[in-house]
Amino acid sequence: MKGKETDTMEKIVSLCKRRGFIYQGSEIYGGLAGTWDYGPLGVALKNNIKNLWWRMFVDDREDMYGLDAAQIMKGKVWEASGHTGAGFADPMVEDKKTKKRYRADHLLQDIGVDAESMTLEEINAVIKEKNLKSPDGNELSEAKLFNLLFPVHMGSVADKTSVAYLRGETAQGMFVNFKNILDSFHPKLPFGIGQIGKAFRNEISPRDFIFRTREFEQMEIEYFVRETDWEESFEYWRKEMLKWIELIGLDMKKVHELDVPDEERAHYSKRTIDFEYDFPFGDRKELYGLAYRTDHDLGGHTQGSKVDLSYYDQDKNERFIPHVIEPTFGLDRTILALLSTAYTEDVMGGDTRIFLKLNPLITPVKVAVFPLKKNDKKLQKKAREVYDMIRAEIPEVMYDDNANVGKRYRRQDEIGTPFCITVDFETLEGKDGPKDTVTLRYRDTGAQERVSIHELLATLHAKLSTKR
Ligand code: ATP
Q1: Is the CB of residue 333 below 6 angstroms from any atom belonging to ligand 1?
Q2: 331 C-alpha vs ligand 1 centroid, how far in Å?
């Protein structure tokens, strides 16, 4: 890891805890590796991102069908999709002394060896040749494949037939519901199914905060096309993904498209683009993926379930299994990338001001309202009136009268609130101008202006683009 980035990462993790975005999972019991709990501001940020995504990719389109499938799915689903096999397993080594487990490919990567497309035998040969030790300096075991699915024993009898799995990706929920959507809505190709939800992977070494966790959230689309149309559709979705990246305000200079070479692609994919991001832990890693999955999934489930998952084109009198383009967006990685893009330190007169330069569309709090003085009844009353007026139209507003105004600004800056409104004595008396004006302060510049209360909502709506 590089020094500066690691530093930023630590600052982000600390800010997330301090300000109520993200806490360690099961923290008071010493934590549970690879799990994180989203606090009040974290869940608000997540919901804003999910709502924006749902609006852009589901609600605003006529060719998309929303879904919320169960997170526990039958073992047979994962057998048919290939996830119980070697395709969904990572190479694992064990420190012979501490018994700690590591991803073999990560250890090789740390010494500059790209193991992405290596076989287990090749990985073991490199470990031997380089006499690779664990991070604690101990002997390593041979690398073995470790499956990432979490088994769940359903019901009271824990035998093999009752094993189900927490889904390893949301995608399979969409494939197994393909026929339901066809039967209920009779859509014409091309059309898609969109879903947001949790996925679970028993990652060998969860790390880098919310980048690699054991429970995470995906926003995924399975877009069904005729085989002959896959290239056009792939290119269309590549551009849509870039539009989304720009819309939420990620730093485009940190986004890199990687056309994944043949030997590194999943066996079912004929083309994959990884959208990589320069993450704050000092590495360029996958943020999102776009894959052409051919007819692998619907074909596999047709075989596995013996239910016909073909599509009938009435106009052409043809029956066939559609092909699939899959744009996939990791929600937790989106949040980490956004936080690292937004984290800003401004040194002013020896003082460091920290603020999150988040797109106002997704900030947990859009507006904060303060009375200048905490104990002044008249100021309090007026500030409450202003707060209630805003709340009626913009629910993400916060009232704060804790400590002095300077401290309140700091707190709001740190959580990315784009606008702060202060009700002061001028509001009540209109000393230097008309009565009923408040101070509107901007997060990014710290600049302030006076705005009439009558114009306040219109001004905020215009700046937040909250009206559709
Ligand atoms: P990686 O190579 O980093 O393990 P992957 O190629 O296995 O990722 P996909 O199977 O393509 O990931 O999953 C789709 C998306 O889900 C990823 O682009 C990423 O944003 C997210 N994702 C995958 N695994 C994790 C994880 N362990 N923690 C958080 N997000 C994840």
Answers
A1: yes
A2: 10
Under the banding of pLDDT at 50, 70 and 90, the label for residue 467 is very low
Q: pLDDT tens digit string along 25-63?
A: 999 999 999 999 999 999 999 999 999 999 999 999 999
> What is the distance in A from the centroid of ligand 1 to the CA of 71?
17
- The reply to whether ligand 1 has any atom less than 6 angstroms from the CB of 289 is yes
- The neighbour count for residue 88, using CB atoms within 10 Å, is 18
Question: Is ligand 1 within 6 A of the CB of residue 293?
Answer: no
> 365-464, what's its fold?
Rossmann fold (3.40.50)
Q: For residue range 382-427, what is the model confidence (pLDDT) as tens digits?
A: 999 999 999 999 999 999 998 888 899 999 999 999 999 999 888 8
Cβ within 8 Å of residue 330, ≥6 positions away: 216, 217, 218, 219, 287, 288
Q: Which atom of ligand 1 is nearest to the CA of 288?
A: 18
| Assigned superfamily of 3-79+150-339 | Bira Bifunctional Protein; Domain 2 (3.30.930.10)
Query: Mean pLDDT, to the nearest integer, of 254-282?
Result: 91
218 lines ligand 1 (CB under 6 A): yes
Place of tokens 């893009």: 341
Task: Report the pLDDT value the prediction gives residue 285, as an integer from 0 to 100.
Answer: 94
269 in contact with ligand 1, CB cutoff 6 A? no
Domain 85-148 has CATH 3.30.40.230: yes
Comparing CA positions, the residue from 357, 338, 467 lying closest to residue 418 is 357
Taking CA atoms, 76 is separated from 65, 159, 165, 181, in Å, by 25, 15, 9, 21
Ligand 1 mutation pick, 149, 216, 271, max ligand atoms within 8 A of CB: 216
| Cα distance between residue 48 and residue 360, in whole Å | 10
Residues 321, 302: contact at Cβ < 8 Å? yes
Q: Which of 117, 264, 333, 334 to mutate to test the pocket of ligand 1 (most atoms within 8 A of CB)?
A: 333
Each residue's pLDDT tens digit, 84-127: 888 788 899 988 888 888 999 989 988 989 887 788 889 999 99
- Assign residue 186 a region (left: φ > 0; alpha: ψ between -120 and 50; beta: otherwise): left
Domain boundaries, the chain: 3-79+150-339, 85-148, 365-464
